[in-house]
Known about the structure:
single chain, 754 residues, alpha/beta, 24 helices, 19 strands, globular, disordered N terminus, disordered C terminus
Amino acid sequence: AMRLLLGAATMAALVCGGMASQQAGRSLPSLLPQPQNINLFDGPPLQVNGAALCIYRPEEAERLEDPSSRFYRNVRRASPKDVDMFFAGHDVGNPLASECSEQEDKFIVRLKILDVRNRNSKTQAKLLLSKESYHLTARNESISIASYYEEGLFRGYQTLLQLLQISGWDGSSQTWNGSRIDQMEIIDWPSLPNRGVMLDVSRNRIHTLETFMGIVDVLAKLKINQLQLYTEHTFAFQNHSRVWKGTGALEAPEVLALSEYAHDRYIKLVPNQQSFGHMQHWLKHEDYLHLAEHASGSNRLWTFEYCCSMFSDRENLPYSLAPDSKSVEFLDSLYSELLQAFPYSDNINIGFDETYDLGMGKSKQAVAHRGQHYVYLKFLEDVVGVLNKYNRSAMFWGDIIAEHWDALSRLPNTSIVLDWGYEARAPFRSRGARFQQHGVKFYVCPGTSSWLSIGGRMENMMVNVLNAATAGSMHSAEGLLVTDWGDGGHMQPLAVSVPGYAAAAEYSWNMNLERSFTVEGLTEHLMGKVSKFVLNAGSGVIGRVLILLGNLYKIVGSQTLANRSALFDILILSNLKTALVNHVIVGLHITRSGLQQALGNLKEASMLLIGELAKFDVEGADQGPLNMPLSIRELMWAVSFLTLSCQVGLECVELGDARCDLSKIPRARAEQLGMETQRLRERLQVIWPARSREGAGLDDTLLRLQHVENVLKAGRSTAGRPAQEGGQRAGLLSFLSRFMQKKEAREESARGEL
């Protein structure tokens, strides 16, 4: 029951947003993200019939007049072809502005870079709050957008484009003619200075460069200013091809091109390279084994199939680097090559999370003598020292340091802690207070809740992101980074993650905006804006489908293990002999009525997608930056996956089999389901390369479906490893026991935060 009451501070913010949503009986425009301050003026709407853009700048900003400048390119690219562009001086009365003044028959849009030496009014003072601040005025038959910086002018122009979409422009046609904009004033700035998205490119799915660029275009619309690509082994280091060969790894020229593309849209591409734990893809090779903390392998959770490679020829993989000088030298060699592809970022995310085997091998004596946190921090200091010579600051995940609050005072003062938590009740507020108290720079890092779910966990995502943004605003976080992981083979469609990007953009830019106290209301409101401004689907149909899919986790198995959905586990994990499957208890958390309700929702989603696809499959239809026909087909694949999982779940309910052993399903029915799985696998094999790279990642994801297919067709498990006995199984069960105990304790402590 996610119809929860939000905390007092959040409710107050929502009330303020609700009160501001109407003015003198008129509704304010609903934008994404919603501006901080909108005032409507009396008078009829402005009618756009023919338009001209006039760029004004102070003398020191001559670069704006260069047609090759990124500002000019952005404005030209986003504007219809029939919109003329003119350059002028700083003042309207400047002789250089004569061309604009001569456009008497046109609708004038003035784009002004203000002179920082002139800041006499309160409005101009507000524009100094951020480089991204801007002032938009629609009045007297023209529009003016002003800022002290290019970034602010670009953000303001994105707002203008949304206002035009609301008033009739479809976002793609070659003219604004016929659009109508209410007379208004917008004064706007971001609540958090850094607002980012992190994409996992290490768990099988690496997008094509074209797809990455489309994502950047979406993020620019959302006023996101940072993008990270999470890499463990998927950057093509020149001297380490054995590690990444066959994965479709990102090559340096591609990354540099993406860095330039993002920079052109005022987004920083930030390097993200695991540098401590999660190094199994390197350390499993003999050439790198000498760098491992525990060469014989770890028995921790992360060697199991749901996270990493499904079919491994080793039961235990070495996992973390040893925290010693050899590892520091190794990382230095990686950074010297990697950082050249990210010329605009001052930071690098070095990971440093989930170092569960620290103290199990080479560092055992040091940990026993000085403590785990001392050894961890010493290695962090050494790596930060390496980064200093490259003039880069370290970002690192905060889960380990959060276990040792007394060590915060030892953190390097240039480093940034990434405080992550992916459940609705993640205690961002209490941890943020600690970081603020100790003067530690930090980001709040919620998640898209898309991974291990196929259809997403929509309401969990909404509350997770909202609570993170609230805590970040309250405790002066440096920024918000929403994470989009690919655990379990990265099967979820890109469109399922988009609501998470949008929620992060909405709440990190402006907290005082919404008008509903229920999560359902927040979700409906946001998805309406996502449909219009991001998905180019003003009908709202795709938004409705994403809500239907994103709510299935509440209907089927809502009390299973956190950070996933039961419908993923039923199909993918049922006949893999891991203890995780014990947390999917058919008949207790997964019921016949729930599965049948889910099938009804999936049928509705399928019909909506078929109708929407017909609209985009016509010649000349604008496909948008995410290629909507492809996105719809990917969502149709997700509907098929979830439908098949429901059908398998119903068979297990009939059998009364809590472990959902696929080999026990009656043969005739099992063979039918096996054929459905085969079709699902074959469709994914066709759809995947349209957006993402082929290679070992796709092969591994297809093997997961192949395994299910084989079990159903043959009536026995043909690919899963036998049940683990002894240390490894005991280690996993022990970890899960501690995980659930910690989760319950965290939720108990977090209840006061909501």
